[in-house]
């Protein structure tokens, strides 16, 4: 645990973190990029989830929907992680003391786990049902859980800014 603390202190005390903290334009710019990339992540995931729920693109195979959308999702996710990491290092100890930040990180992990479980179990017989307007229950459950998790991620992210201790 001491090594993790040292690593966090190293990044928080870096010239890059100082620049982000002290520059009047840099943090808001990084935050704007982060918000836009999160919008792309959540919006593109929502499109797939709505297909899994049988509420959108029902005349398209699930694999066609995911093949068209997921590259955008992953690119936006990389940008969100990079911009989020830059914001994090600017005040790492304050972020780590914020319950909404911790919840956001765990919720992102839970959303990733939901996706992994869906791909490992629910989508193993995808060719059998992907053309159906209403996918099987496990796929629909994965879709609704994904929506709930990502909405919670966004809500926690929004509350981080309102609950960060100043000074």
Keywords:
elongated; single chain; 81% helix; 167 residues; mainly alpha
Structural overview:
This protein is mostly helical and 167 residues long. It contains 8 helices and no strands. α2 (15-22) packs across α4 (62-90), α3 (26-52) runs antiparallel to α8 and α6 (99-122) packs antiparallel against α8. The chain is elongated.
Strand-residue fraction?
under 5%
The largest sheet, given as strand count, sense and whether it forms a barrel, is: none
The chain-level structural class is mainly alpha
How do the SSEs run, as a string of H and E? HHHHHHHH
For the terminal residues, how far apart are their CA atoms?
Answer: 25 Å
Q: What is the helix fraction of residues, given as a range?
A: over 70%
Number of helices: 8
Q: Extract low-pLDDT stretches.
A: none
Gyration radius from CA atoms, angstroms: 19 Å
Shape: elongated
Overall mean confidence score, pLDDT = 94
Topology of this protein?
Layout: H1 2-12, H2 15-22, H3 26-52, H4 62-90, H5 92-96, H6 99-122, H7 126-129, H8 137-163
Helix pairs in contact: 2-4, 3-4, 3-8, 6-8
């Amino acid at each position: 645990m001491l090594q993790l603390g040292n690593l966090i202190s190293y990044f928080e005390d870096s010239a890059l973190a100082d620049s982000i903290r002290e520059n009047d334009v840099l943090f808001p710019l990084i935050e704007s990029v982060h918000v836009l990339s999160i919008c792309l992540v959540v919006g593109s995931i929502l499109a797939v989830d709505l297909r899994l729920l049988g509420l959108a693109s029902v005349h398209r195979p699930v694999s066609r929907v995911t093949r068209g959308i997921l590259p955008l999702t992953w690119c936006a996710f990389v940008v969100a992680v990079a911009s989020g990491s830059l914001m994090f290092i600017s005040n790492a100890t304050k972020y780590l003391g914020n319950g909404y930040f911790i919840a956001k990180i765990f919720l992102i992990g839970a959303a990733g786990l939901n996706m992994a479980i869906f791909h490992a179990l629910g989508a193993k017989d995808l060719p059998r049902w992907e053309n159906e307007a209403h996918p099987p229950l496990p796929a629909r459950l994965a879709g609704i859980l994904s929506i709930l998790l990502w909405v919670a991620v966004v809500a926690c992210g929004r509350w981080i800014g309102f609950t960060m201790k100043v000074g």
